[in-house]
Amino acid sequence: MGVKVEVFRMILYLTFPVAMFWISNQAEWFENDVIQRKRELWPPDKRQELEEFKERIRKQREEKLLRAAQRNS
């Protein structure tokens, strides 16, 4: 009985990752579900706002780093 259980476990350990890899690499699934969901969550107008926010934060960080560098010089 022990050998059968070990064989089952080995099959499970090998099959599960391969199946997950295969499922996650299906281009049709990705295009249909993931991209559509992304568009629902972040419509184009919201994406523009998000990009502007990222740019403001990036500029603030750069200015902070420049001020810190100038103080240390």
TrEMBL record:
Short name of any one Pfam family annotated for the protein: Pet100
Topology versus the membrane, per the UniProt entry? Single-pass membrane protein
Question: Where does this polypeptide localize?
Answer: Membrane; Mitochondrion membrane
The record's annotation in InterPro entries points to:
Pet100
Q: Which UniProt keywords apply?
A: Membrane, Mitochondrion, Transit peptide, Transmembrane, Transmembrane helix
Say where the protein is mainly found. membrane
Q: Which family does it belong to?
A: Belongs to the PET100 family.
Q: What's the protein here called?
A: PET100 cytochrome c oxidase chaperone
